[in-house]
Design brief:
Elements: H1 3-13, H2 17-25, H3 33-50, H4 61-72, H5 77-96, H6 124-131, H7 138-150, H8 154-158, E1 171-175, E2 181-185, H9 188-198, H10 240-251, H11 255-268, H12 273-280, H13 285-289, H14 296-303, H15 316-323, H16 336-339
Antiparallel strand pairs: 1-2
Helix pairs in contact: 2-3, 3-4, 3-5, 7-9, 7-11, 11-12
């Protein structure tokens, strides 16, 4: 079969945008919950804009570019690049893996340059003041402290269940971006708050279900999966969007800034890059280096290394003693406070002593 006839046959199959999206989102490459959520958000919005029941083969490259521009053209470069990459992966999979007639992302919808944000890290004093405020509820304070002490991603911590916690060793397993199970560790601040967070009004303790819960029970129309509902209270798991709004309400910060600040503070404390990568679980050193931007105090401390050594000036009397041949003048003098108590009159050659009416030299 020629290439032209094969394409014609594929076009007649009439694979819709919705079917192509569902097939791609069911593949192992999107098995990670964080990746799956990001891909679903981008692909569903593009499919809804172009028509979910529309055949995939009828969509042109220009329409894909127009949809990207309409949805995220005015967004930040990082947002544009993230959603563009999701659509590119989807369409490339349709072309190479399933051999469907599918459009491509046009060349004019190119990746945008992301400028490094120098203000992502927050000062350590600001973090400590935020976590010690008395007007912040226990749930929010525990979430922010565990995010800072573990340097973990917010989605990873929000996905934790109570049965996942190893309270004795202050650690918990999380599913990372690539789908691997890794451990995160917290310190005494989080260890002090977690038992209070798990305590129920009747004095008992939660043993199963999501760690961080929403304030209210979900309505029947928006009831989540059973795994996201606490069996003790009936409340649902706290979502990422709500957690982001709460931090912005109290501190005008972003959730990722807690992770960025933790890595930066470790770098300022002269922790080796290998340990910082182990804490943040970054695989690429170049990625981890974005988080260890040194602060002003660290730069000022390093600058002291470039300063020249200060010269020690011997006192005038010590040079005079060397000129007149006093024994021991070649030795390094002691500090003035120590010399002052032991100096004795020194008789110069040809001079008379104090009893003879002549001057004495010190």
């Amino acid at each position: 079969m020629s290439a032209a006839s094969k394409i014609t046959t594929l076009r007649r199959q009439g694979v819709s945008l919705a079917a192509a999206a569902d097939a791609f989102l069911a593949t192992p490459c999107t098995a990670n919950p964080n990746t799956h959520r990001a891909y679903v958000s981008a692909i569903d919005r593009v499919a809804a804009l172009l028509g979910r029941d529309r055949p995939l083969a009828d969509v042109t490259d220009i329409e894909i570019g127009t949809a990207l521009t309409e949805l995220w053209g005015a967004s930040a470069p990082a947002t544009w690049n993230r959603n563009r990459a999701a659509i590119t992966s989807w369409l490339t999979w349709c072309q190479t893996k399933k051999h469907w007639a599918a459009p491509s992302v046009p060349a004019d919808a190119e990746r945008r340059k992301e400028s490094a944000d120098e203000t992502r890290a927050v000062a350590k004093t600001t973090i400590h003041r935020l976590l010690s405020r008395r007007d912040i509820p226990l749930r929010e304070k525990t979430l922010w402290r565990i995010l800072y002490e573990t340097a973990a991603r917010a989605a990873e911590i929000l996905a934790l269940n109570v049965e996942d916690l190893d309270l004795e060793h202050r650690r918990a397993p999380v599913r990372s971006k690539g789908g691997a199970i890794e451990w995160v560790y917290w310190d005494s601040g989080t260890a002090h708050l977690l038992p209070r967070l798990l305590r129920l009004p009747d004095g008992s303790t939660r043993t199963h279900g999501p760690l961080f819960l929403s304030a209210r029970r979900p309505v029947p129309a928006r009831r989540p999966a059973a795994a996201d509902i606490c069996p003790h209270t009936g409340r649902a798991r706290l979502g990422y969007d709500r957690a982001r709004v709460l931090l912005d309400k109290y501190a005008w910060l972003d959730l990722h800034q807690l992770r960025h600040s933790a890595a930066t503070h470790l770098g300022e404390a002269e922790v080796p890059l290998q340990l910082i990568m182990g804490k943040t679980r970054h695989q690429n050193p170049r990625t981890a280096m974005r988080y260890v931007e040194p602060g002003a105090e660290a730069i000022a401390k390093v600058t002291e290394v470039l300063a020249s050594r200060r010269r020690t000036h011997w006192s005038t009397e010590w040079r005079l003693a060397g000129a007149i041949g006093v024994p021991g003048h070649h030795q390094r003098p002691r500090p003035w406070c120590a010399r002052r108590a032991v100096l004795r009159p020194v008789r110069l050659p040809g001079s008379t002593g104090p009893g003879d009416g002549g001057p004495s030299q010190r």
